[in-house]
Design brief:
about 625 residues; alpha/beta; Rossmann fold; 4 domains; 6-stranded parallel beta sheet; about 35% helix; about 15% strand; magnesium ion binding
Length: about 625
C-alpha cells in the first residue's frame, strides 16, 4: 500500500505547484498573485499561507492586471517560466477573463485558479453566484472556456491528481501553450484527502522541439531553392523557440531579408544587415517593398494576422507562401505550404538542405534609406518648447538608453510607432499586440522587470491606457520593482481618432476630450497621481528634459513616471499617412456603405477598390 499524506485540496495544489521544476532547476510556476475574497480566502488563502516559505504569494490591486503581470513574466522568460493568479468566485473571476484572452491570443502560459460555487450545492445560491436558469452546472467561471487552453472544474479533492498535470502539460506544450484554468469549488478547497506521497515528488517539465516531417522539409527546400527573391517574416515563435541565432545564421548564409511582426521584433538585432524592419500595416518602406517584390514569403513562428499581411493584400499575386510553425493550425493559414516544427530545428535543418543556395541580394540601399528616414524622424527637435511627436519621444528615449533597454507597450499610438521606429538590440522589444489590450502596460512592465531584472525596462503608455489601468504602480512600489514609464499625454484616444477620421471617413467624435460630450475639459495631473501611489513622478517639457529624466531613473529602486505632452496629429506607419520611411499596407476596417456625408461616401468607394485586392485564401 502506497504511503499517503492527508491534506486539504488547496494545500495539495500549492504543495504540488511548489515542486514543478524547469530544466534549469527552478520552479516553473514562480508563485501566485492573489486577491482574496469570497470563494478563495479560506481554502486557497490558508494553503498559500502554510507554504509561503516555498511558494510565494503576491498581492496585487486588480485581478486583470495581476494576470497581465503574470503574462509579461512568462513572455519575458520566453515561456520557460510562468505565474499563477487566484481570484474569488464572482467579479474577481470575471475580471480575469480579459487576461486569459490575452494569454490565449499570444500563446503564453498562465495558471488561473478561480474560486467557484459549492460542489455540494447545499447553500446555493451563494454570494456572487451566477445562476443559469436552464443549466445547474454553469457558474461565472464558464466564461473562461473559450479563452483557455485547458479548463477544469475541481469538485472532488482527488481530481487534482489528474487535473494539475493536465494543466501544466498544456502550459508547457509549445504548440498548444496558453492559459490553464482551474475552477476550484470553495468547499472542495477545504476538503481533506489522503494523497499519495509520490504525487509530490519534484517533476521536471521539458519543452519539446519537434523536427519537421521529411516530406514537408523536402518540398519547402525545393520551393526555396527555386525562389530568387524570398523574404522571411519572423514572428514571436522565433523568440519562444530561442531560435534568434539560428534565424540570423539562416538569413546570412542564404542572403534572405527578414521582416518582423510585433511579436517577432528584436529576434534580430537592428544592426543585422538582413534586418529590414517591420512588416505590414505599420511596416517600413524597406520591408514592405521587399515583400511586394518577393516570389516566396517564408513565415517563421507567425500567426500571419491582418496587420502583418495587410489584410491579405500585401503579398504579390504570384508569390508563394511557406509557413514554419509549431502548430499545424497556424502553419496552414492563407494556403501556405506547411512546415510543422520547432522554429530552431526547422531553420537549422532547412539551412542544411539548402546547402550553398543564396537568394538575390536584397536591396541594401532601401534598408539604409529607411534607417536614415527613421533617424531624421526621431531626431532631437530644435524647438524644445513645442509638443514633440511620438517619434521624437521615441528618439529621445533611444538616445538616453543603452543596449540592455527593453521597450514595451501594448495599445494605442505607440505600438505602431515603436514597431517602425525603435531600433532594438536582440531581445530589446516587448509588445503585447496580439490582443492589443489597453491597460497591459504598467502591470506588464512590472512582470517583465521581475523576469529580466538585469535589463532596463521602458514602458511606453498613452494617457488613455494609463487611465484604464494604473494601480499596479502601487504594487511595484511596494515590491521595489524599478522600471521607467514614459506617459505620452495627447488628451484622448489619438490613435483611434486618426482611424475614425482618416481611415474610415468619419468625423472626430468621442475620442479626443475636445470632441466628447462633457461639461468641462479635464485637467489631469498624471505626475501627481503617480506620485500619490509612491512612484517618482515628474512632468517634463521637451525631449532634452525627457532624456535627462530617463538617465536619472536608473539609480532608483522604485518606478519612475515621466509625463510629456505630445502632438496627436503626426503618426507614421498607420497605412493612413506616409512618413518616417513608412510604407503602410492596407488594413481592412469596415466603412459604412450608406451615409449622408460626401466624405464618408468617397471613403466607401475607396474601400471597395482596396478590398478587391484581398486574397481570400483560407
Amino acid at each position: 500500500m502506497s504511503e499517503t499524506i492527508r491534506l486539504t485540496a488547496a494545500q495539495a495544489m500549492v504543495k504540488w505547484l511548489s515542486v514543478q521544476m524547469t530544466e534549469e532547476g527552478v520552479r516553473f510556476i514562480d508563485g501566485m498573485w492573489a486577491i482574496f475574497g469570497h470563494g478563495n480566502v479560506a481554502g486557497i488563502g490558508e494553503a498559500l499561507h502554510a507554504y509561503r516559505d516555498v511558494f510565494p504569494t503576491w498581492r496585487g490591486q486588480n485581478e486583470q492586471t495581476m494576470g497581465h503581470a503574470a503574462i509579461a513574466y512568462a513572455k519575458g522568460h520566453k515561456r520557460r517560466r510562468a505565474m499563477a493568479v487566484t481570484s474569488s468566485i464572482g467579479p474577481g473571476a470575471t475580471n480575469l477573463v480579459t487576461a486569459a484572452a490575452l494569454a490565449h491570443v499570444n500563446r503564453l502560459p498562465m495558471l488561473i485558479v478561480a474560486g467557484d460555487v459549492f460542489a455540494t450545492r447545499r447553500p446555493d445560491p451563494v454570494l456572487q453566484q451566477v445562476e443559469d436558469f436552464d443549466d445547474g452546472t454553469v457558474s461565472a467561471n464558464d466564461c473562461f472556456r473559450p479563452v483557455s487552453r485547458y479548463f477544469d472544474r475541481i469538485a472532488r479533492p482527488e481530481q487534482l491528481l489528474s487535473a494539475l498535470p493536465r494543466a501544466l502539460r498544456a502550459m508547457t506544450d509549445p504548440a498548444n501553450c496558453g492559459p490553464a484554468v482551474l475552477a476550484f469549488c470553495q468547499d472542495t478547497q477545504a476538503e481533506a484527502f489522503d494523497y499519495p506521497v509520490a504525487f509530490f515528488e519534484p517533476r521536471v517539465w521539458r519543452m519539446r522541439r519537434p523536427a519537421p516531417d521529411a516530406g514537408e522539409l523536402a518540398r519547402v527546400a525545393e520551393m526555396v531553392t527555386a525562389a530568387k527573391r524570398p523574404v522571411i517574416i519572423a514572428g514571436g515563435g522565433v523568440i519562444y523557440a530561442q531560435a534568434e541565432a539560428s534565424l540570423a545564421d539562416f538569413a546570412t548564409a542564404h542572403q534572405i531579408a527578414v521582416a518582423e511582426t510585433q511579436a517577432g521584433k528584436s529576434a534580430l538585432d537592428q544592426d543585422h544587415p538582413m534586418s529590414f524592419g517591420a512588416a505590414g500595416v505599420d511596416g517600413s518602406a524597406a520591408a514592405n517593398a521587399a515583400l511586394q517584390a518577393a516570389d516566396l514569403v517564408i513565415g517563421v513562428g507567425t500567426r500571419l494576422q491582418d496587420f502583418t499581411t495587410g489584410s491579405r493584400t500585401l503579398l504579390s499575386d504570384g508569390a508563394k507562401l511557406v509557413s514554419i510553425n509549431i502548430h499545424g493550425y497556424d502553419a496552414a493559414k492563407h494556403g501556405a505550404e506547411s512546415l510543422v516544427a520547432d522554429a530552431k530545428v526547422a531553420l537549422e535543418m532547412l539551412s542544411a538542405a539548402l546547402g550553398d543556395y543564396q537568394a538575390e541580394a536584397p536591396d541594401a540601399e532601401a534598408r539604409k534609406d529607411w534607417l536614415r528616414a527613421v533617424d531624421a524622424y526621431c531626431a532631437r527637435p530644435e524647438d524644445q518648447a513645442a509638443k514633440p511627436t511620438d517619434g521624437q519621444v521615441i528618439g529621445a528615449v533611444q538616445r538616453a538608453t543603452g543596449v540592455d533597454a527593453v521597450a514595451m507597450c501594448a495599445a494605442g499610438t505607440m505600438p505602431g510607432a515603436l514597431k517602425l521606429l525603435w531600433k532594438p538590440s536582440q531581445g530589446g522589444y516587448h509588445m503585447e499586440y496580439g490582443f492589443s489590450c489597453m491597460g497591459y502596460e504598467i502591470a506588464g512592465a512590472m512582470g517583465l522587470k521581475l523576469a529580466q531584472p538585469e535589463r532596463e525596462v521602458i514602458c511606453f503608455v498613452g494617457d488613455g491606457s494609463y487611465m484604464m489601468a494604473n494601480s499596479e504602480l502601487a504594487t511595484a512600489v511596494m515590491r521595489r520593482v524599478p522600471f521607467t514609464v514614459v506617459l505620452t499625454d495627447n488628451h484622448g484616444y489619438g490613435c483611434i481618432n486618426r482611424l475614425q477620421t482618416l481611415g474610415c471617413g468619419g468625423e472626430a467624435f468621442n475620442n479626443m476630450y475636445v470632441d466628447c460630450a462633457i461639461e468641462a475639459q479635464p485637467e489631469i495631473d498624471y505626475a501627481a497621481h503617480a506620485a500619490a501611489m509612491g512612484a517618482h513622478a515628474v512632468k517634463v517639457a521637451g525631449t532634452d528634459a525627457l532624456e535627462a529624466e530617463i538617465r536619472a531613473a536608473r539609480g532608483r529602486e522604485i518606478p519612475t513616471v515621466i509625463v510629456i505632452e505630445t502632438d496627436a496629429r503626426d503618426f507614421p506607419g498607420t497605412g493612413l499617412e506616409t512618413s518616417a520611411g513608412a510604407h503602410g499596407a492596407f488594413w481592412e476596417v469596415a466603412v459604412p456603405e450608406v451615409s449622408d456625408r460626401q466624405k464618408q461616401r468617397d471613403r466607401f468607394a475607396q474601400y471597395l477598390s482596396q478590398i478587391a485586392n484581398a486574397q481570400l485564401v483560407n
